[in-house]
UniProtKB/TrEMBL annotation:
InterPro entries xrefs: Methyltransf_25, SAM-dependent_MTases_sf
Species this protein is from: Roseinatronobacter bogoriensis subsp. barguzinensis
Pfam (any one): Methyltransf_25
Keywords: Methyltransferase, Transferase
Domain of life: Bacteria
Protein name according to UniProt: Class I SAM-dependent methyltransferase
Length: 248
């Protein structure tokens, strides 16, 4: 295999993977329930990647109109192919998730709001929400009393991580209130890392130097996760505009 640019190596690693980050269909179902998303909702999957959650949204809400947006052309192409069986009610395009039009009853963002910042992303999406619209997103969360292994994982992957209180504070700073919160630990991460391990193994024999470096980086990340899998978590938050009452 001829040598690749770092961006090409990254996209080679992620091609043919079902997910670009941790997640599980059951967690999305929980968020839809907490959000009380109506059957005929208009939904946006912001930072949709290759469309794993877009497909789940389309299945969970078969009468909904669903938009999905991502900045990476390769992921957009993959998402379009995966969602083609749902026809015109699912629309996928390449663009900036910070600039949504709406109005949406639900904006779903799995593991991507950190590109904008929690507060900044929620503020940017406020004008794209329909009346009574809701945002559901996942964000890295440091659990109480973290081990050295958990700290080591996040020091590389997301040094600006906070605990749940810190996430709530960022939600409040955007002028939103929390409707529900959950933690994604274990299965959601296995859904991401186990297929990636198989992908790394398949690419390793013919990898160019740049691709090999990308595979090494991914393997090191997986190893850090395996050192503390019960402590590595995303907080799954369902939030809506409007601050909570003082005694909530």
């Amino acid at each position: 295999m001829s040598d690749l640019t770092p961006d090409e190596a990254f996209l080679t690693l992620y091609s043919d993977l079902a997910r670009e980050g941790p997640g599980a269909a059951a967690d999305l179902g929980w968020a839809l329930s907490v959000a009380a998303t109506p059957a005929e909702a208009r939904i946006c999957d912001a930072g949709c990647g290759s469309g794993a959650d877009t497909v789940t949204l389309a299945k969970e809400r078969p009468r909904a109109k669903i938009d999905a947006v991502d900045k990476t052309a390769q992921f957009v192409d993959a998402a379009r192919k995966r969602t083609a069986p749902f026809g015109a009610r699912v629309r996928v395009w390449q663009g900036d998730m910070a600039q949504l039009d709406g109005p949406y009853d639900l904006i779903w963002c799995a593991g991507a709001i950190y590109f904008l910042g929690v507060t900044q992303g929620l503020q940017a999406w406020r004008s794209a929400l329909a009346p009574n619209g809701v945002v559901a997103f996942s964000e890295p969360c440091m659990l109480p009393r973290p081990s050295d292994a958990a700290r080591a994982f996040w020091s590389v992957e997301y040094p600006q991580i906070t605990d749940m209180a810190g996430i709530r504070a960022r939600v409040a700073a955007a002028g939103y209130r929390v409707l529900g919160e959950n933690l994604q630990i274990g299965a959601a991460w296995e859904n991401y890392y186990l297929p990636m391990e198989r992908r790394i193994a398949s690419l390793r024999p013919d990898a160019s130097s740049t691709l090999a470096a990308a595979l090494d980086t991914a393997e090191a990340e997986i190893a850090r996760w395996r050192a503390a899998p019960s402590e590595i978590a995303y907080a799954l938050m369902v939030v809506a505009p409007g601050l909570s009452a003082p005694d909530d």
